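ok posting inputs for the magnesium ion job
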Amino acid sequence: MSVGLIPGVERVLFTEEQIDQRIREVAAQISQRYAGKPLKLIGVLKGSVFFLTALSRQIDIPHTIDFLAISSFSNKSGSPGVVRIAKDLDDSIEGEDVLLVEDIVDTGFTLRYLLQTLAGRGPNSLSVCTFLDRNSRRIVQVPVDYRCFEIPDRFVVGFGLDHNQLYRNLGYVTSKADVTSSTRIFRD
Ligand code: IMP
Ligand code: MG
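and the output
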């Protein structure tokens, strides 16, 4: 899809080539750290699917994958932060070395909830790998072990990230100027 066909598009932040190169670098770090361990990648549907599959293909040690889905709601004051599991993992993570794979860490509410939930299930270790990190909007502090890119405070789409469920299929990441917090839907 041509960039010109996306309403409100600002500029391409990361091209397919840049994304591919960075994923190779992060995958190499992960392969080194988890060599000989029972690594499981856990993806958060739907946003992280594109990143997780690209990352998995570049990780050159044996590993398994599993997915969960969450819903996020605004609370009465209008701020996000209420998260629940809409689809749980298929399998137990007890004793496993878990790498939670996210599309983007923004306020941190989603990640905090996921880390608390998964930590209670007895993994051997629990770390976080995110495709994008928008640290400038963080409200709750959360640990991020691996990140591909830090991004400015602009709404972005592509490589799994959506606006109203569209544009996940773009191979690149582009910012969209016509999305404000009031037109955003807090759902993966
Ligand atoms: P949180 O604010 O860190 O809890 O992030 C909530 C979720 O909002 C992320 O997992 C994404 O699914 C979504 N999100 C945050 N920023 C963007 C964006 O710029 N584009 C598309 N989705 C986003
Ligand atoms: Mg997400």
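notes: The mean pLDDT is 92. Residues 44, 47-48, 102-103, 110, 188 surround magnesium ion (ligand 2) (CB under 6 Å).
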